[in-house]
């Protein structure tokens, strides 16, 4: 979705002036998900943190007064703020709901004494699952890391700071800025309102070109974890398979010392070792493998092996051992001119687009909500979703791997509309974001395709070089997966489409144009598909379609915003899908799984209402239309017995 929005605040200096400060950038090392192993410990820092928004005219008091040098409570009034959560909807303060600028978080933690002892002592790492948008982190007053981007993890080795401090108290301070510029992902812009007869002094708006609320805060878990001084830094796994044998190619990197020995064991779900190897690079041969299959495509979807990597290394005359276990799914992905193949079999995406969004917590990770959403997905018969319009939490991705839910993994490249957002500064940041995303999710079997952007202004000539470069870079990072971006441009004007492997098209026929005229859908949608395929000879996914429906609003004959209109629009689209999926249409993803919050505007009454579920996860009438359809498609294409229906699973 792409709709202009703005957040209005009275401030002094533009907070953008404070965004880019010199410091320690987040490194390009491995980004293995923290796990408890025989050699590693983890301490989660969720709960209440101290919080203070910088309300000074220039939003710069925190830096000029060096709030990071002492406990935050000594700098002025603080409040409790839950982590993970967005800060916007937690309080009754309307100025915080739409606040733009720097906010400050702090947490004091006692470290286990064993983390600070030994020769060599363990390595202590501070890791953030995500914080939106720009973060600067101090530990005991010492800056340890900066990170740009609101949807991917970053970390810092804080061993020298905490092991050199008296006692075991660790004070973590975070300065966080949610300002968006033309060169951030997603982009935004600051517009000053200079008419003093209408606006107060220094009044500005934060303009955005995307249709979801710009929630901010520490959105995902913060953890401290340890490794030995010499440790396994990164693991890369790719797989190939046939009916009777699979090959698991691996590459392991070690930091801190040259490993004396490096051994690998691949275990099945019963704990049996099915393959073993040694050395930093190699391949494991698995006989009669259990392949990773999508949900509803196999009676045992989401099968995961466990790859245990053990390293031994000498450091200062001491023998150190590190152990890391990585879930591994064996599956292949291949794209033809008309099909998307998983393990050599045609796969049809019947799924949803989502958002990380809920009442009160905003984009903050919430386990009850996550589990509820997956139960609804399986009830619905959905086999896939796109991470619209940013990478989702690792905890969500873990469940996709385990449940067999297929993922189109999208970068935060949404709202790229201005010509200046296609320049070199933006391009370099976009390339860096794709590196971070691929580094985090490269080993996930659920991720079958990367999406580098959603609804950019790809009709601009600048888009040709931009997307050619981003897509080529992503393919170089990961040659094993196809790459796309999601377009709403005219097929004849799109400068980025020549470089994608799969055409993903968004269209809202009878909604944003020809409003209320459902009768135009068959003709226009058929022409849409035929024009795209004739031009590019690539398979097509209808990556967005849908209509707003206010829960409980009914009308027969259907009128816009009623539940009946949402049902009728879906059925009109489905009639065309059923014809074209016999040819080259390989998927359909409804917009949206659930209602979600947006910025205020005359077209949005308390958010976007295109969900088939409400924001509280209650079904609208359209959910039952989609459920019947998805289970019918699943039974047509599945190798499972036809007795499996929507009423026999996940009720």
Distance between the termini: 32 Å
Please outline the major beta sheet: 8 strands, parallel, barrel
CATH superfamily of the largest domain: Glycosidases
Biggest sheet, spatial arrangement of strands: 26-27-28-29-30-31-32-33
Low-pLDDT parts are: 1-27, 642-651
What is the CATH architecture annotation of the largest domain? Alpha-Beta Barrel
Work out the strand percent: 25-35%
Structural class computed from helices and strand pairing: alpha+beta
Overall mean pLDDT: 92
Tally of DSSP β-strands: 33
Give the CATH class of the largest domain: Alpha Beta
General shape: globular
Structure report:
Helices cover 19% and strands 30% of the residues. It has 3 domains: 41-178 and 214-227, Galactose-binding domain-like (Jelly Rolls, Sandwich); 231-328, Immunoglobulin-like, CATH 2.60.40.10; 333-637, Alpha-Beta Barrel (TIM Barrel), CATH 3.20.20.80. Helix 8 (521-536) packs parallel to helix 9. The protein is of the alpha+beta class and 651 residues long. Mean pLDDT is 92; it is low at 1-27 and 642-651. An 8-stranded parallel barrel has the order 26-27-28-29-30-31-32-33. Strands 4-3-5-11-8-9 form a 6-stranded antiparallel β-sheet, with no helix packed on it. A 4-stranded antiparallel β-sheet has the order 2-15-6-10. Strand 29 (447-454), helix 7 and strand 30 (483-487) form a beta-alpha-beta unit.
């Amino acid at each position: 979705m792409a709709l202009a929005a703005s957040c209005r605040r009275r401030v002094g200096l533009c907070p953008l002036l404070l965004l880019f400060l010199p410091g320690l950038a987040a490194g390009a090392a491995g980004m293995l998900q923290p796990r408890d192993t025989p050699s590693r410990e983890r301490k989660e820092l969720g709960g209440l943190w101290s919080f203070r928004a910088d309300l000074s005219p220039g939003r710069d008091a925190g830096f000029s007064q060096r709030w990071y040098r002492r406990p935050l409570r000594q700098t002025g009034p603080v409040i409790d703020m839950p982590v993970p959560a967005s800060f916007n909807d937690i309080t009754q303060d309307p100025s915080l709901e739409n606040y733009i600028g720097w906010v400050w978080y702090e947490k004091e933690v006692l470290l286990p004494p064993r983390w600070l002892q030994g020769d060599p002592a363990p390595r202590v790492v501070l890791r953030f699952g995500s914080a939106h948008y720009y973060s600067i982190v101090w530990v005991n007053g010492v800056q340890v890391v900066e990170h740009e981007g609101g949807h991917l993890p970053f970390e810092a080795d804080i061993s020298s700071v905490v092991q050199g401090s008296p006692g075991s108290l660790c004070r973590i301070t975070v300065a966080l800025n949610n300002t968006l510029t033309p060169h951030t992902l997603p982009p935004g812009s600051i517009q000053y309102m200079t008419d003093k007869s209408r606006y107060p002094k220094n009044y500005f708006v934060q303009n955005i070109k995307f249709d979801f609320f710009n929630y901010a805060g520490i959105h995902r878990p913060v953890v401290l974890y340890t490794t030995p001084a010499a440790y396994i830094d990164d693991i890369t796994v790719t797989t190939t398979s046939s009916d009777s044998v699979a090959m698991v190619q691996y590459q392991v990197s070690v930091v801190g010392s040259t490993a004396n020995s490096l051994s690998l064991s691949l275990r099945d779900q019963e704990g049996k070792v099915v393959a073993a190897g040694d050395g930093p690079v190699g391949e494991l041969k698995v006989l009669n493998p259990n392949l990773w299959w999508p949900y509803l495509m196999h009676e045992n979807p989401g099968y995961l092996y466990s790859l245990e990597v053990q390293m031994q290394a000498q450091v200062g005359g001491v023998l150190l051992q590190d152990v890391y276990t990585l879930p591994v799914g064996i599956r292949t992905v291949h794209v033809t001119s008309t099909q998307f193949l998983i393990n050599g079999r045609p796969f049809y995406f019947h799924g949803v687009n989502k958002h990380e969004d809920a009442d009160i917590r905003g984009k903050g990770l919430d386990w009850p909500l996550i589990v509820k959403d997956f139960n609804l997905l399986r009830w619905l018969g959905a086999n896939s979703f796109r991470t619209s319009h940013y990478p989702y939490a690792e905890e969500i991705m873990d469940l996709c791997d385990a449940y067999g839910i297929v993922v189109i993994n999208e970068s935060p490249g949404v709202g790229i509309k201005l010509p200046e957002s296609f320049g070199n500064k933006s391009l370099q940041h976009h390339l860096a974001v794709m590196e971070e995303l691929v580094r985090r999710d490269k080993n996930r079997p659920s991720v079958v395709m990367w999406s580098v952007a959603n609804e950019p202004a790809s009709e601009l000539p600048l888009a040709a070089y931009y997307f050619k470069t981003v897509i080529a870079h992503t393919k170089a990072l990961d040659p094993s997966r196809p790459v796309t971006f999601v377009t709403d441009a005219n097929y004849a004007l799109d400068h980025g489409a020549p470089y994608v492997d799969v055409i993903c098209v968004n269209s809202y026929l009878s909604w944003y144009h020809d409003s209320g005229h459902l009768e135009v859908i068959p003709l226009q949608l058929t022409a849409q598909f035929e024009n795209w395929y004739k031009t590019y000879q690539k398979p097509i996914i209808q990556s967005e379609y849908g209509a707003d429906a206010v829960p409980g609003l009914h009308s027969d004959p259907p009128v816009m915003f009623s539940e009946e209109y949402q049902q009728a629009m879906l059925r009109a689209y489905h009639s065309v899908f059923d014809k074209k999926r016999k040819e080259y249409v390989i998927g359909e993803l409804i917009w949206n799984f659930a209602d979600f919050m947006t910025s205020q505007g005359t077209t949005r009454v308390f958010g976007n209402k295109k969900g088939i579920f409400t924001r509280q996860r209650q079904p609208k009438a359209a959910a039952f239309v989609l459920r019947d359809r998805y289970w019918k498609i699943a039974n047509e294409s599945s190798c499972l017995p036809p007795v499996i229906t929507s009423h026999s699973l996940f009720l």
